[in-house]
Amino acid sequence: MIPVNGDACNDRLMRITQPSLSFRQEEDPEEQATRLRDCFRSLLGMDVIESNAAPLSSPLLEYTEKKDGYTEIRFLFESEQDCLVPCYLLLPDGDGRFPLVITLQGHTTGVHNSIGKPLFPGDDAYIASRGDFARQAVAQGYAALAIEQRGMGERASKAENRSTGCRFASNRALLLGKTLLGERIFDISRAIDVIPLLPAELSGKIDLSRIACTGNSGGGTATYYAACYDPRICVAAPSCSVCSYADSIGDLYHCECNYIPRALRFFEMGDLALLIAPRRLIVIAGEKDPIFPIGGVRAAFRTIDAIYHKTGCPDHARLIVTPRDHYWCKD
Hints:
This protein is α/β, with parallel strands linked by helices. It has helices at about 10-15, 30-45, 45-50, 125-130, 135-140, 165-175, 180-195, 200-205, 220-230, 295-310, and strands at about 60-65, 70-80, 85-90, 100-105, 145, 205-215, 235-240, 280-285, 315-320. The chain is about 30% helix and about 20% strand. It has a nine-stranded mixed β-sheet, with helices on both faces.
């Protein structure tokens, strides 16, 4: 029998597809960004998501607890209709207004890890090694907002006949003309909207003119795309997530939540930096990361670097490569 390779067709298309909205050195970057932004929004289903937005209202405060050097606040808000978003806000002690860092967990047991609160087996070791993103930020003098991403942690499906991971959430979003990625970045943007609606003694301590966003793996992916969507994010620091599609999600198995339908017909991941420049972008990668290979990271960053040079701010984009694998590095 003649051997059959079930991947051959799409392997070939991955090799030969030329995205139609790729960054072009000879063209005006603002005009390119305008075309790319419209396409990006359309593919993510942002029109559907935004049309289902819940009216802005004051978040529901669940508790406020004093910690060593900071205050921890737990609250929920509604982003889309019937869509509650659990958050933890950590505010440093002291007077003044603090820049805000939005922290995003990837495929872990949930947002509680960001604040250093173990709830499940394995959390202690993960937190001790690198996982308490929000607690790290508040220790450096930032206000930290930890958001539970859709399909993860508390927001994973509880129904017995539905996947508890991202699969069901991703595929059902597609049926509705949305994407799970689009839903996640909308939640991040809406979280920024509701900060001023917190009680004045909380919101008054946050400087919304200085917003950063960071996370590892699925948190890094959401960070990068959220910066593409919301210009209020001044600094984006995605970790173990920015890589050429051809070398990562187009070649290796990844969770469904990484995919934007038809994306490669129009852009590669690096091209999307047109939607971020000239704001600051710090791409963090692991030399030994098996699912976001360093060769693909460097390929994506070559495009990013060219975009930032073209827009006149080459020092606003950096690539930091650690000696680790798929890992958040504190130092």
